Amino acid sequence: MVDQPLPAVSLLGEFAVTLQIAHEVSHEVFEQITQWAAAIDAAPPVGLREIVPAMVSLTAYFDPEKTTLTQIASAVLRLLPTENRVTATRNPVIEIPVCYGGTHGIDLNDVSRHCGLSPAEVIHIHSSGEYRVHMVGFMPGFPYLGGMSERIATPRRETPRTSIPPGSVGIGGRQTGIYPLESPGGWQLIGRTPWMLFEPQRVPPTLLVAGDRVCFRPIAVEEFERLAREVTCPSV
Amino acid sequence: MSFRVIRAGQLTTVQDLGRQGAQRWGVSVSGAIDPVALRLANWLVGNSESAAALEITWVGPDLLFESDALVAYCGAECVAHVAGQPVPRGCPLWIRAGERLSMGSVHRGARTVLAIAGGIDVPPVLGSRSTHVRSRLGGFHGRRLMGGDHLTVGELSEDSTRYMTLLQSRVGTSSFLRANWSLHEPEGPPVPLRVLRVIRGAHWDQLSPRAQQTFRESSLTVSSQSDRTGIRLEGIKLTLVEDSDRFSEAVVCGTIQLPPGGQPILLLADCAPTGGYARIAHLIAADQPLVAQLRPGETVQFEVVTMDVAREQLRQQAAELHRLRLMIRLKQETS
Description:
The complex is a heterodimer. Chain A has helices at residues 27-42, 69-78, 108-115, 119-128, 221-230; strands at residues 8-11, 16-20, 48-53, 57-62, 94-100, 131-136, 143-146, 161-164, 168-172, 175-178, 183-185, 188-192, 213-218. By secondary structure, chain A is of the alpha+beta class. Chain A has two domains: 8-85, Gyrase A, domain 2, CATH 3.30.1360; 94-230, Beta Barrel (Cyclophilin). Chain B has two domains: 2-187 and 326-334, no CATH class; 193-304, Cyclophilin-like (Cyclophilin), CATH 2.40.100. Helix content of chain B is 20%, strand content 30%. In chain B, helix 1 runs parallel beside helix 5 (307-334). The chains are: A alpha+beta, B alpha+beta. At the A-B interface, strand 2, strand 3 and strand 4 of A face strand 14, strand 18 and helix 5 of B.
């Protein structure tokens, strides 16, 4: 990245502005963006249409008939919390049941080979960490989770799969995430949750939002099947 | 009020002006790729501009109306017939119950919007009726239309009711009636090369001066690997001065991304709300209708303009649309 004084303001087309507050992801930056988004939600400036918080930036979409780019950028920046006001949020940890390996996690053996660990060790490491939802994007409800142990980091598959079942839990490099919907994808699949991460009728429509704390609980195939029957399935 | 899909065409989906406010949850905006065509078609049948209509790509559907209907299509030219008679673009059409509207192949462009008085009545999802096929969201069961589908239209507006009654009083025993006027839509330039205007993106300065020149001066070809998500452009290979790791950030319809391969992608309405590639430029909003009509193999050239030019072009387009809207109203009331 080019060195520039932060926050850096850049246009995203004619009706949105991206405000970048850091060059690198860190716990502090993440907390700052999470609280910034909350402050904007609590008192949205005139003409603001929506915001998209991301890893090191926040994008504000505005209605050009009600405000200008300069006005919205300064109004949003005014709500940026200073770093020393940032304190850790105290949301409860969301425990997501995951059936690891077997048909639900077909790449578990590849991951364990790559990392020089046994499959049980990979499961143990993945399910004993606590993660934060850094952002939701790429597809409806897809959480980018930060906080995974480097010991199980594994590069994406060389050839992405054309179809991944919904609920699949994957590792892509140093990140882990969950595919909420059936989709193509290149992450290493180590397990699957029976939970629905995206239900458009719900408010908000995603199980996880940026800022949430998450952990994984290993479950057996039987429990996966029982829980899968309990949750509503999308009509096809 | 309802109709049945006899044959669905190539890619026919329900679209409105898009889904605002849910991008932070990973939900795409979607909506008609040609929002001007959607607005015009809706106005022609007395709908509000944001009513849901059918977006047709390449080859249109055959629809059987089960009740009297008022329809109009805008955007690309399309070979359309009712009861064996050709029906023109940009013209309100009254169609008798039991008749069939055949939308044939789309030419001089890629996408046609067919509006039906009352709007397509599918349940709104997160504030919009637009279909996002990839996430099976919105529209008719989250998918493209298929033969045999049965759709309903919403309640008619006062404008629609009045105009339908007027046309009905003149139709006699015919199976359909076309209005004695039609809209002359603003046409794209009739040259084989389209100039698309863009403003600089956040990572424009990471292109070397030479790469910037290449971007400005080259003709790019629309790849066949293009869809509602984006248009891939071939013919140049651009490299960034410093292609460091980038974190995923917001992108929008019109963003021109540069993946590591060096071939730009112009994102369209179905793009994901975030992306990790460099954002070198953004199409100006006023040129969105031109992009909606690009066909694979066609060539484009980019012209970099200032934000002031972008705003002025949009203002002119809004003024032209306002003029057309008033003209449509006047025709519906007086002719």
